[in-house]
Amino acid sequence: MDSVTQVLLGASIGVAVMGRRTALWKSALWGGVAGLLPDLDVLLDHGDPILNMVRHRAESHALLLLTLFAFPMAWGVSRIHNQARLYGRWWWALMLALVTHPLLDLMTIYGTQVFQPFSDEAYGLGSMFIIDPVYSLPLLLGVAAALRVKTVGRALSINGWALAFSTVYLAWSALAQWGVTQHARQSLQAQGLPSQQLLVTPAPLSTWVWRVVAIDGERFHEGFYALMDGGRAMRFVAHERGTALAAQNADHPQLQRLARFTDGFYKVADANGRLVVTDLRMGQEPAYVFSFDIGPSLQAGQTHPVAQQQSRRMDVGAGLSWLGQRMLGRDVPPPLGP
Predict the structure, then answer these.
(1) Is the peptide bond before 117 cis (omega within 30 degrees of 0)?
(2) Are 79 and 119 within one domain?
(3) Which of 11, 237, 280, 309 has the largest count of CB atoms under 10 Å?
(4) Which of 31, 125, 30, 37 is nearest to 80 (CA)?
């Protein structure tokens, strides 16, 4: 999720765990800091945008390492505030604020390496978009109450209910994703399309509209489903994946890296003799966040060690207009992009 939401989640957890044991601003402050810390790995430059992508959410998001880091962090915080007797409680608050960061990231599709240093496998359920106001705004309300409501009991109650609502919303997103997946499989099978390799993720900003991608050998099929569509069958549009080009360059290390990180949801294109690899999981045709020029084809006997990112972003106004219509169940085609 976005870093602001992670700060709010950490602050909310800090307030909930520390309760009346310390000033609410202290628990909100340090919970927010703990919630932000794992994302500071974005400051590390690995010398290549693809490496930066696959190394994000790695060791800094490892559940074991974050749990261990909570020990010295809790020691430092408890000493700063002369609350050594509360060391154990500070450890619980900060540990939970730290580890819920990667657990929340697991709900997105990006990929989080929670089992580092034992495994570099990246996991992602994909039931939440990276920014979702329905999840974040209740957390903001709870933290604001902790900082502004003078009655401690009332402030803790508001924060607790806000945290509970956001947690239930996460469960709802997983349930909605499951339902859309079943409907997508039925629609694909009815149209004679494969449904084994399937990606189901929410469209931006909500869990009301969903994007579905099905891999079919040399092509991928993209479709959208809104909860207001009811039982209406999904409509899919086929696009080329460039599998022949990918096979010709199967030994390219950058291509191998992206193929593994995306779990096969990628496409390859030739742009004036240069290979462009695109992560199909984040964005929609033809606008994607992670698209990379990885240099000339290997068949030309050359390599290009440093990739160049080529993100394409959809016009915000057109995208929001389309999203609003789809949320109402109107079957209109998505914008064509920039």
Answers:
(1) yes
(2) yes
(3) 11
(4) 30
